[in-house]
Amino acid sequence: MSESLIITSTYKEGIYKELLPQIEAVIKQETDIIANQANISAILKEAFKFLWVGFYRVDKDNDELVLGPFQGPLACTRIKYGRGVCGTAWKEGKVLIIPDVDKFPGHIACSSASRSEIVLPMIKDKEVTGVLDIDSEKLDNFDSADEVWLQKIIGYLFF
């Protein structure tokens, strides 16, 4: 793959369609999940100009999420089970799309610039192993199309 992304589409689903084979090409031969998460974070941040894109992994011993590879401003390092959007997505084992983070009870403001968020649990063998968290500076920036395409991308981590 080239060192830069090839994106010709101007609409969200078109961008995802173009990104999918590029992401697959980058991570297919790499077995290290940290390296793959780092590249996925960079690709999504570059393609969509999101405020923050990153992964948190489950630390069962301490009942919290621990920061993994990310792109964007300084992030929260640890998030307790059930706290904030990420901890709630982990607890409920489902995707959370938050149109306005200021209206989410218990939202953890790692960055005051964040206005909307999507968090997708990464599930392997019926267990949440971590989450993909994406923040936007725009209100209501995420929808079911993001959910569908981002779940496909997460699926690549578990070839």
Key words describing this protein structure:
6-stranded antiparallel beta sheet, Beta-Lactamase, 4 helices, alpha+beta
Structural overview:
The protein is α+β, with helices and mostly antiparallel strands and 159 residues long. The chain has a single domain (12-156), classed as Beta-Lactamase. It has helices spanning 12-27, 33-48, 84-92, 144-156, and strands at residues 52-59, 64-71, 78-80, 96-98, 116-124, 127-136. Strands 3-2-1-6-5-4 form a six-stranded antiparallel sheet, sandwiched between helices. The longest helix has 16 residues, at 12-27. The radius of gyration is 15 Å and the shape is globular. 31% of the residues are buried. The model has no long low-confidence stretch (mean pLDDT 94).
Write out the CATH superfamily name.
GAF domain
What is the beta-strand fraction? 25-35%
DSSP E strands, number: 6
Q: Count of helical segments?
A: 4
Q: How is the biggest beta sheet arranged? A: 6 strands, antiparallel
- CATH secondary-structure class: Alpha Beta
Helix and strand sequence: HHEEEHEEEH
Q: Indicate the percent of residues in helices.
A: 25-40%
Radius of gyration, whole Å: 15 Å
Basic shape: globular
Poorly predicted regions:
none
N- to C-terminal distance: 19 Å
CATH fold-level topology: Beta-Lactamase
Can you tell me the CATH architecture?
2-Layer Sandwich
The overall pLDDT, averaged over residues, is 94
Blueprint of the fold:
Elements: H1 12-27, H2 33-48, E1 52-59, E2 64-71, E3 78-80, H3 84-92, E4 96-98, E5 116-124, E6 127-136, H4 144-156
Antiparallel strand pairs: 1-2, 1-6, 2-3, 4-5, 5-6
Helix pairs in contact: 1-2, 1-4
